[in-house]
Amino acid sequence: MDILKLDIEGAAPEVMKNIIDEKIQIKQTVEEFEYSEDVNIDDNQLHVQSERLKKFIIQMRNSGYKCYNLPIYSHIPYSTIEILFIKQ
What is the DSSP secondary-structure string of 11-61? Predict the structure, then answer.
């Protein structure tokens, strides 16, 4: 598969783990990670989501992907983050 775009409301890490475990070859994938749909993001929620994202990025790098943050323009800061992963 050349390109995979995931916007599946928080399920991307689990889906990508299954894809990696099944050794499905994907050249590029873009994934959206939701932090909050509320303008009042609580510090603990931000920390938990950031740690989860960090673990996922490490897993993707260990699986041979480079990662790039894609800018998103939203009226809610830190509501979502999109990351492009490219297989090396």
Answer: -HHHHHHHHHHTT---SEEEEEEE--SSSS--HHHHHHHHHHHHHHHHHHH
d(CA 53, CA 75): 21
Q: How far is CA 9 from the centre of its chain?
A: 11
Q: How confident is the model at residue 58 (pLDDT cuts 50, 70, 90)?
A: very high
- Report the distance separating Cα 2 and Cα 25, nearest Å: 8
User: What pTM does this model have?
Assistant: 0.75
Domain boundaries, the chain: 3-87
Q: How many residues in total does the chain contain? A: 88
pLDDT in tens, 29-54: 888 877 666 666 777 877 887 888 88
